[in-house]
User: Which sequence fits this backbone?
């Protein structure tokens, strides 16, 4: 078995370990609901991936939870529509 000839200094050891750190997770935005999502994964909020519904998010919820989640999604869409309208008005004023 190969045996190290000399002991490595703390400096050399620590310089090697300087790169062994955790990197922050890179998140992108869900195009449908705007929630932060991992790349190449379906959105856990709305269940959409690549413009299609990949899973039914509401399937495993109880009746009460379903109502709550559906309400939240509707409110989000309302906000989204309002923002879109606001942008259109802004563009109109520019022209
Ligand atoms: Zn989503």
Assistant:
């Amino acid at each position: 078995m190969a045996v190290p000839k000399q002991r490595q200094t703390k400096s050399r050891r620590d310089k090697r370990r300087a790169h062994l750190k955790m990197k922050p997770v890179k998140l992108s935005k869900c195009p449908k609901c705007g929630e932060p999502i991992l790349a190449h994964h379906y959105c856990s909020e709305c269940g959409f991936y690549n413009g299609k519904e990949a899973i039914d998010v509401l399937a495993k919820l109880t009746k009460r939870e379903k109502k709550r989640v559906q309400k939240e999604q509707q409110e989000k869409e309302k906000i989204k529509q309002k923002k879109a309208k606001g942008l259109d008005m802004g563009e109109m004023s520019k022209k």
